[in-house]
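User: two proteins, same treatment. go.

Assistant:
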Amino acid sequence: MILADSDIKKALKTGKIKIDPPPDLEEQLGSCSLDFKLGNVFKVFNHSSFPYIDPRQPQDENLMKEIVVEKDKPFIMQPHDFVLAVTQEYIDLPDDLLGRLEGRSSLGRLGIIVHSTAAIFDPGWRGKATMEIGNLGRMPVALYPGMRICSMTFEELTSPAEVPYFQKKTAKYINQVSPLASKISGEAT
């Protein structure tokens, strides 16, 4: 079952869902979702320095570079480009709720997709949400830190997860506060 606005407010008030900084509910709360804001840290590929990416090999630390955008300055998403970015909000989910991240239609109409694949945040997730942002359009688009970039819905599980994300030995992205490059090479093949 997806939480309605009143349930989201209650979960925030009781601390069942923890979000830091606390959201401005008047601006960020929808009927069944909560908007999150774009952070100021981005990771971009140094595509001209590497011939390809091998997911079986640990990623070279120079494969991506981090860009920190100053206050009130835009990050320009070039057409057909791809970046990793994080939300401003740090999210702490309980073991009986999952979060589902969705892009905003207003940005989608400009060609901006906010996640390519990673839409589900497991019960027990803790950290800032990393977004896989792409520009499918033909024109560059300015993205500003602090703008509402995505929304998250919260869904109840039938029972609490036996092993929430923060307790998993395979939790590769727990407590992340900046966009992390892929850690797929650590998986068994």
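Protein 2:
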Amino acid sequence: MPFSPKRRADTLSGLLFVALFAVAALRIADWPGVRALKLSPLIVGIVLGMAYANTLRHRLPPAWVPGIQFSAKTLLRLAVALYGFRISFQQLVAVGPAGLAASTVMLATTFLLGAWLGIRLLRLDRDTALLTAAGSSVCGAAAVLATEPVLEAKPYKSAVAVGTVVLFGTLSMFLYPLMERGGLLGLSPTAYGVYVGATVHEVAHVVAAGSAVPGAAEAAVIVKMTRVMLLAPLLLVLGWVLARGRARLKVPWFAVAFLGVAGFNSLGLLPAPWLAAINRFDTFLLTMAMTALGMETGVDKLRAAGAKPLLLAALLYLWLVGAGYFLVRSLF
């Protein structure tokens, strides 16, 4: 046990070690140049963790490893549950039937397509395919993190999936505004916002792409957060599907807690400063989890994954951009 009397001090040392990296990631993410690129602390954290894993990891005391693993697993589950404080059921109402339909259809089809393409066509292992599909279909790095414990996947597979999210999410920040300004889309500001919110990966990327068109940012963010809310049902269904043939269904408690927290948040009982503080704490926990994940990811493992995950993410990106556009055009 990581917190048994004999191991408690070493485990806490490992936790503190990861926490110091997370603090550095938060500070770096706040640098003007990094902030301009819309790189969240989560992404900075995994980069720092991977840099450490491939340089100085051999000097880490082995007794500290349980602290890193606790950050990547237990703290991750807690952070996903607390993520519910960022959304409310009122957002489902505010987005309207068209926005909700766009979110649900694009999430479901992208995830299913990713599973089929990855496992059947590209012959990827199940975990890498599903993690990449989750990152593309739901909410980027946070979705990859939330899906990992359901699959019981290896950390380096999550790192591969997160890498694809960073690449294509960053591309979206520039591609979507260019398409709209070039007259290729012909969407109203609201429709453009729904298009961005239903198809772009990270929340930060959605904000950047949505803000490029006046009057589109609010719709983009609301639709995006409905996709985040749909993460919990996706994880519950995925857990049920994976449990078929097993003796016992393993329910991801953090997904249930996520919905419960979102429901509580919908009551509007907490003052805004409290919510802001909780969300800052949650961002710190997520950054710790990402950093710990990076610390478990060596270059040799990424090299072994090959180019297929990137190809899968590229195919899913084409689906998001193309099918998402025609879906939004049909709804507005």
